[in-house]
Design brief:
single chain; alpha/beta; Rossmann fold; eight-stranded mixed β-sheet
């Protein structure tokens, strides 16, 4: 199993659940080698699981291509077993100034969405026949919900415009809107991936997951100190609940991501959206716009251009 951002927060909790259940071969992909090594050390002591690490910055297309090549050679060389699942979990919101990737793409869009778009394209052929791709998204993608309104409603998922936010001058979108829209792109991609896999007769699943608002992760690390302090208090959680915000928890959200990756109960979960809210986990409707196939295809084609996907890189499963 490959997980991006598996060394902290919801991803780490998911990895812990996975290795509790059975000995497993897991690859942690991320951009913080020291922290990944630390996690490998801790988890190895807890069972017969084999955990490897893979350098990956999802906001850099060069890094994604290098990571995918390394992963494929690990599979082909027998260093790891067949890939059963790709958990596209890395991501987050940047609270500071607008930043740009080595390709000059806005990093919230690139790190949450575009890098995973490329990663999945490059690795889908390495997945087992009944493999799964699970995307960690966010309820903030839905402009009609409290979650969406709280960060600022997602805008039109126009890949070129989102990639170039802040590049050409002008007032950039707020950090909350950039985040919500990047997560909307993730869901549009997850559903379009599902449709294409189905059309190709593949049994690989593509599943979208909202962990709910979870405290105790590094998600708010770049936020102002008072917000970081208040967000984790039980008072703030009660207020959020009253306001109708979707609430997750490290334990339930991490365990739910692990279930989506492995549990046979979710074998029919492809093309669906699952959410944790207030201790319960189940299927929900995502934003109305996320089911718009024409938008999903437009986003897909523009994303192919943005990542300069070559014909050799494009899997026959996804054409
Ligand atoms: N916490 C919430 O309330 C909440 C709610 C809804 C959705 N989510 C989503 O849940 C996922 C996990 O978040 P979390 O709350 O567990 O926060 P977290 O503890 O900060 O975990 C995020 C992980 O993603 C990694 N990451 C971020 N950008 C990356 C990049 N460009 N390349 C490689 N790795 C990158 C981080 O690595 P580094 O340590 O190297 O930065 C970290 O391991 C994210 O996709 C987030 O958007 C969170």
């Amino acid at each position: 199993m490959l997980i991006t951002g598996g060394h902290s927060g919801i991803g780490l909790e998911c990895v812990k659940r996975l290795v509790w259940d059975r000995p497993l071969n897991i690859v942690l992909a991320g951009r913080s080698p020291d922290r990944m090594k630390e996690v490998v050390g801790q988890l190895r002591q807890n069972g017969g699981t084999k955990i490897s690490t893979l350098p990956l910055d999802t906001s850099s297309l060069t890094s994604v291509r290098e990571a995918a090549a390394r992963l494929r050679s690990m599979v082909e060389g027998g260093e790891i077993d067949t890939l059963q699942a790709i958990l596209c979990n890395a991501g987050g919101r940047s609270f500071g100034p607008v930043l740009h990737s080595p390709e000059d793409y806005e990093t919230t869009f690139a790190g949450n969405y575009l890098g995973h778009f490329l990663l999945v394209h490059l690795l889908v052929d390495s997945l087992a026949k009944d493999g799964r791709v699970v995307f960690t998204t966010s309820g903030t993608h839905d402009p009609d919900t409290r979650d969406g309104k709280a960060v600022g409603p997602a805008v039109e998922p126009d890949a070129w415009k989102l990639a170039k936010v802040g590049v050409d001058g002008g007032k950039p979108l707020s950090s909350g809107v950039r985040y919500a829209t990047a997560k909307l792109c993730v869901i549009l991609f997850a559903y379009e991936l599902h449709r294409r896999l189905q059309r190709s007769g593949s049994s690989i699943s593509s599943i979208a997951f909202d962990p709910g608002s979870v405290s105790g992760t590094s998600f708010l690390r770049g936020a102002p100190a008072p917000l970081r302090f208040i967000a984790g208090t039980s008072f703030a959680r009660r207020l959020m609940k009253l306001a109708g915000i979707t609430l997750g928890s490290l334990e339930v959200s991490g365990a739910s991501l692990a279930k989506l990756a492995t549990d046979t109960a979710y074998a029919q979960g492809s093309g669906r959206y699952f959410q944790v809210n207030d201790g319960s986990f189940g299927e929900r409707r995502s934003a109305t716009i996320s089911y718009d196939e024409a938008r999903a295809i437009k986003l897909w084609n523009a994303s192919k251009q943005l990542v300069s996907l070559t014909t050799t890189e494009e899997s026959p499963l996804l054409r």
